[in-house]
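Fold this: DHA2 family efflux MFS transporter permease subunit
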Amino acid sequence: MDTTLPQTGARPAPAADPARPDPRRWWGLAVISLAQLMVVLDMTIVNIALPSAQADLGISDADRQWVITAYTLAFGGLLLLGGRIGDLIGRKRAMIIGLIGFAAASAIGGVAATGALLLGARALQGVFAALLAPAALSLVSVTFTEPHERARAFGIYGAIAGGGSAVGLILGGLLTEYLDWRWCLLVNAPIAILAVLGASAFLHDQRKEAETRLDVLGAVLASGGLLAIVYGLSEAEQHGWTSGFVLSLLAGGLVLLALFVVAETRVAHPLLPLRVLRDRNRAGALLSVGLTTVGMFGMFLFLTYYLQVTLGYSPVRTGLAFLPLTAGMMTGAVGIAARLLPRVPARMIMTPGLLVAATALILLTRIEVDSSYVTHVLPSMVLLGIGMGSTFMPAMSTATFGVEPRDAGVASATVNTAQQVGGSIGIALLNTVATSATARYLTTHGSDPLAQAAGVVHGFSVAIWWAVAFLLTAAVAAAVLITARPAAVRAADDGAATSAEPVAVLV
């Protein structure tokens, strides 16, 4: 019996090719970038609002640091757990849950009537940011697998991740100066709603059913260890680096992390599979990111104080003064790194980028009380932005390249953890160095107002030299440890080896 269908003018639609990328993937990247921008800018937008919030809610000088620390503690300490949860429940779902929770926590903080409620809301923001951030980065990693597209996508993502801090300063200055400090938190709600709608429309999570059990022991050890270290670093300024309280926290954190490593070798479904860290290139990229953020976060803090306190800039003017840094990051990430990464090894982009950034910091050590922004600060900001953009984009791409789909979330969380821990170390360590240098300067030069201003700038300069050392160490780590060939060459070899297997695309 002939079962052949008769020919007609209309042909049935061809089956979707799972190997072909979704044409809406760039809209998906826009949604992911919007979510990442919200997380990054929230780390600086509240800094501008803090003096007004402190006065409004009656927060003491001793407790005001917790408005910032509550967020970074929860964020940095729970990132690995958030990344693994994303692997288990799906990155799109984790991202949407993170967005909704982040928006709700922001709204609570925006209407807070007491300092305690504001601190609790900030901690809750950090919890949901720890779920959102690794999900966003892992979606970029597993979505864009073609080398040129991957480079372009990570260039855009890296520029937003790096420039979001400056955007936070500008937006925070505008909202605080012309509206109210509460809008620095409430503004997250409409951003999150827009991102949720975009994620629902453009992101498609093709997670395979695999591991369904969570490593509870690993989560407790890793989160507890990171929380103890970040908390100890945040308290070092107040209690001193040699205090028993700080040393106990740091030692306890290191012990917990050591136990975490041991535990991960013995559980069936580890929170952080050690296979993720055994790759030499990934380890080099993570180390470079951590060392770089030590220097960058400290410099960012010093420049903010220098512009507002020493030069007397308003919040809005301070934010605008950071625009060249953002422009430099966009140039370095999209204009340089994204174009070169498919054809040039990552270390050949990162190492020069780190050297350029170190040169920018060296120029900043020459600032004085009456230095001009145009001649002393502006050139350093442009160079620093170019160097950072040329560093972070290939570092993030290298750290997440070649990861098994089941580990994409935790690998992305590891990158974010390196950034947060490095930033916490940078703020705590370099701020202590600057304070000590200022105290020594005042001991020998007196304590009149002119000497105090000069002493503060001297402390900044000494601490920036430490930041230069961290960036140079990161450059050495990138040059020595990262040996991967250009992305296009690796992709071609991998394609030849696995040509029979389709590439899964999530967006």
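The radius of gyration is 23 Å. The CA atoms of residues 206 and 506 lie 6 Å apart.
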